[in-house]
Amino acid sequence: MPPLPRAHFKLGNCGSRRHWQQPLRSALIGAALLIGLTALAPARADVSLIGVVPGKAAVLAIDGGNPKLVKIGRSWKGIRVVSVDEQHAVVEIDGAQRRLPLGQHYRSGASSSSDREKVVLAADPRGHFFVDGTVNGGHVRFILDTGATVVALPGADANRLGIDYRKGRAGLIDTANGPARAWQVPLDTVRVGNIELHNVEAVVVESGLEVALLGMTFLNRVEMQRDGATMTLIRRY
Predict the structure, then answer these.
(1) pTM > 0.70
(2) What percent of the chain has pLDDT over 90?
(3) Residue 151: alpha-carbon gap to chain centroid
(4) Cβ count near 113 (within 10 Å)
(5) What is the pLDDT of residues 30-69, one digit of tens each?
(6) How high is the pLDDT of residue 137?
(7) Cα–chain-centroid distance for residue 120?
(8) How far apart are the C-alpha atoms of 17 and 128, rounded to whole Å?
(9) What is the largest CA-CA distance in the chain?
(10) CB neighbours of 162 closer than 8 A, spacing ≥ 6?
(11) Are 134 and 151 a contacting pair, CB within 8 Å?
């Protein structure tokens, strides 16, 4: 039986003076309001959910700037926090409410189809980047792993998603815990945030893998930009 691609897995855990004063005052007020609105509601902004304090506040970053703790009911740069739970925050942006998963982002004012999709991930206390995504439309929890040559799914995830992986090419694959039996399968779609890739090569590891690995068959098709505790993935093509 031919071996599968070998990969190393990390399981981590505007007259008189009186007559012109009023128009001028009105013009100045109008200009101030215009400037204020522009500052509060930028035409385009990347809003990232970096952290959460469930039931109390969300840690937001805008356009990759320094994160800020924003309490529920408060606003920052035109972004109002509505609610926060353990993994998400509901924020009001562009006059509408958006539900942001932890570690992901929303690009407000985006209107050009030429804009490349991106997602911002936040590291956990141990420096690992976990992210919720989908495989073939079904939810999967990933950990980003640049040491894995392919996207890898635990057998339990594959079964839940209805992937008949045993029809794929079988073989052995290297993991941190030694060789493991795996099946090579093509995935119709893998989506993380608003980045969706098609026809992604993957393997299913039947046992010994507790969390799906976002490996290089996905990561090779995005740009990765690390900035402290955040990682930005930008679609290449």
Answers:
(1) no
(2) 41
(3) 17
(4) 5
(5) 333 222 333 343 445 678 888 889 999 999 888 767 788 9
(6) 93
(7) 5
(8) 66
(9) 96
(10) 136, 138
(11) no
